[in-house]
Design brief:
Length: about 240
């Protein structure tokens, strides 16, 4: 049972959706911390290979997270190729904006299969591997949208609120060997940010958007913390959730 701070040096950490954006920033930071990074991707192979090269030629794992079968295969491959799993960062997610009166079953499932269902089955498979070697750390990436309601993102908000409650439930279920925590980013702007995103930045007490590196800082904290830190959600949002 790991009660001491958890050094990342030499630890195997899988990051889902690590080819681009926040996932890429997390993967790069973990490599800097000395972790053996495993990079998951689905369609963004070129970007994943670039991130892997910049992460010390990290191992690549392709899987469609809509499929529970493919999730199981991916974790079996991680065990086969990496030998163990010490940390898991569930970052992969989808985001759409739809009037709730117009949301279809297909729209709902498009978001929830990856944002919530896949997170659970990744946690389940990851925990099984971690228990073989004495424990580990899981960090689920939620969202400010899981804390504060957004009118045209009811399906997305409910999926990310679900991630926060799933984090809390699994923290109890997997204790004491495995900790489960969540990071909830606020506005992390990329070149495709829309006008709504820019208005949210203007409303942010910090008077700016965040960066993938700042989200990665929070991920590293939870991965390195002792098992006395579990079931928590840390908003990295410049104070926007307090308004």
């Amino acid at each position: 049972m790991e009660t001491r701070p958890f050094s990342l040096q030499g630890k195997v950490v899988l990051v889902t959706g690590a080819a681009k954006r926040i996932g890429r920033g997390i993967a790069l930071r973990l490599a800097q911390e000395g972790a053996r990074v495993a990079i998951h991707y689905h369609r963004s192979e070129a970007e994943a290979r670039q991130t892997a090269a910049e992460s010390g030629y990290a191992a690549l794992f392709r899987a469609n997270l809509e499929s529970v079968e493919e999730i199981g295969r991916m974790f079996a491959e991680v065990e086969q190729r990496m030998g163990r799993l010490d940390g898991l960062v569930n970052n992969a997610a989808r985001f759409t904006r739809i009037d709730p009166l117009e949301i279809t079953e297909k729209d709902w499932d498009f978001i929830h299969t990856v944002n919530l269902k896949a997170v659970f089955f990744c946690c389940q498979n990851g925990a099984r591997l971690m228990k073989k070697t004495g424990g580990g750390r899981i960090v689920n990436i939620s969202s400010l949208g899981g804390i504060r309601p957004w009118a045209e993102h009811a399906h997305y908000c409910s999926s990310k609120a679900g991630v926060i409650m799933l984090t809390r439930a699994l923290a109890k279920a997997f204790a004491p060997e495995i900790t489960v925590n969540s990071v909830a980013p606020g506005v992390i702007p990329f070149p495709d940010i829309d006008e709504r995103g820019r208005r949210m930045i203007e409303a942010t007490p910090a008077r700016r958007g965040g960066t993938p590196a700042e989200v990665a800082d929070a991920v590293v904290y939870f991965l390195e913390a002792s098992n006395f830190v579990t079931g928590q959600t840390l908003a990295i949002d410049g104070g926007l959730s307090q308004k």
